[in-house]
């Protein structure tokens, strides 16, 4: 949590210390992501993380109150990076879906992170798991924004007959999670991005070859509205 300080800092003083604290926190998060991805959350220890950043376990706990808080910060950091690929809150529904396909391709380059998310999401179904609240919020946020994207595509006449925005959103999340599990079990069995693109194409009529940021052309029935 950050606070706003409207006072003028002393020369070489508080702003420099804030920047140093932010850099230290980021280094801890990067190390924690590596440790949790390689060893899992339960086996990955604070000691392993501390060694990677060259500090004591007590030093880690100065920045994060406990291991669970660190895990949640790691997951939120990873989500922030993912949003750079997926404009999840965009008003362009087609752009959101193309972004999800791009994210699936990117995830194939970091199997340890994919395994961490997949394992944690299953473990976090238990209400007492430290990441339970995070995953509840994450699924609600993701479903809601994807549903909004499908709703816009429906209004543009691009959603296939018989499909509803809500059902498409629920299915999209299930497809992404299910493809990840299958891919982790056998990485030669499928290409997550290719399969996701093909499955999305059964939901909507959009141009998958269009570059990111380029608008969809109007459908014939939209012309003259």
Map the helices and strands:
Blueprint: H1 14-39, H2 46-53, H3 57-63, H4 67-83, H5 93-107, H6 111-123, H7 132-155, H8 165-185, H9 192-200
Helix pairs in contact: 1-2, 1-4, 1-6, 5-7, 5-9, 6-8, 7-8, 8-9
What are its keywords?
225 residues, mainly alpha, Arc Repressor Mutant, subunit A, Tetracycline Repressor, domain 2, 2 domains, disordered N terminus
Question: What's this model, at a glance?
Answer:
The chain has helices at 14-39, 46-53, 57-63, 67-83, 93-107, 111-123, 132-155, 165-185, 192-200.
Describe the structure.
This protein is mainly α and 225 residues long. It has 2 domains: 55 residues, Orthogonal Bundle (Arc Repressor Mutant, subunit A), CATH 1.10.10.60; 125 residues, Orthogonal Bundle (Tetracycline Repressor, domain 2). Helix content is 62%, strand content 0%. It has 9 helices and no strands. The protein starts with 13 loop residues before the first helix and ends in a 25-residue tail after the last helix. The N terminus and C terminus are likely disordered.
Instruction: Report the top-level CATH class of the largest domain.
Output: Mainly Alpha
Quote the distance from N terminus to C terminus: 48 Å
Q: What's the tally of helices?
A: 9
Biggest sheet details: none
Order of helices and strands: HHHHHHHHH
């Amino acid at each position: 949590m950050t606070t706003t300080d409207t006072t003028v800092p002393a020369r070489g003083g508080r702003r420099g210390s804030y920047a140093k604290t932010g850099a230290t926190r980021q280094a801890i998060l990067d190390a924690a992501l590596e440790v949790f991805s390689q060893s899992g959350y339960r086996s990955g220890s604070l000691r392993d993380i501390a060694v990677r950043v060259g500090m004591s376990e007590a030093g880690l706990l100065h920045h994060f109150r406990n291991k669970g808080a660190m895990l949640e910060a790691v997951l939120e950091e990873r989500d922030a990076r993912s949003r750079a690929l997926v404009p999840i809150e965009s008003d362009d529904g087609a752009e959101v879906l193309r972004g999800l396909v791009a994210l699936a391709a990117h995830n194939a380059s970091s199997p340890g992170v994919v395994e961490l998310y997949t394992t944690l999401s299953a473990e976090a179904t238990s209400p007492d798991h430290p990441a339970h609240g995070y995953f509840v919020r994450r699924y609600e946020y993701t479903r809601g924004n994807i549903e909004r994207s499908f709703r816009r595509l429906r209004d543009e006449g691009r959603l296939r007959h018989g499909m509803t925005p809500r059902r498409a959103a629920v299915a999209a999340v299930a497809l992404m999670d299910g493809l990840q599990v299958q891919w982790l079990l056998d990485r030669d069995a499928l290409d997550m991005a290719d399969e996701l693109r093909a499955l999305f194409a059964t939901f909507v009529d959009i141009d998958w070859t269009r570059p990111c940021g380029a608008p969809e052309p109007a459908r014939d029935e939209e012309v003259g509205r």
